């Protein structure tokens, strides 16, 4: 599960680097916010997994 998050982050960075248009930036920002919320929820639910 942790590996999937890391892979998604790497893919996200790659997409942001390739697409400099505003549309891509907005999509990437929304994805980043969603990922951050997801991580926060996971951390709140299972703190043992995050360490």
How would you describe the overall organization of this protein?
The protein has 51 residues and is mainly alpha-helical. The chain has one domain. It has helices at 2-18, 22-45, 47-50. The two termini are 13 Å apart. The model has no long low-confidence stretch (mean pLDDT 71).
What is the structure about, briefly put?
With 51 residues, the chain is mainly α.
Number of domains: 1
Distance between the termini: 13 Å
Structural class: mainly alpha
- Ranges where pLDDT stays below 50 over 5 or more residues in a row are none
Instruction: Encode the helix/strand succession as letters.
Output: HHH
What oligomeric arrangement do these chains adopt? single chain
Number of helices: 3
Q: Radius of gyration, rounded?
A: 13 Å
| Fraction in helix | over 70%
Using DSSP, what is the number of strands? 0
Quickly list its features:
51 residues; mainly alpha; 88% helix; flat; 0% strand; 3 helices; single chain
Topology:
Blueprint: H1 2-18, H2 22-45, H3 47-50
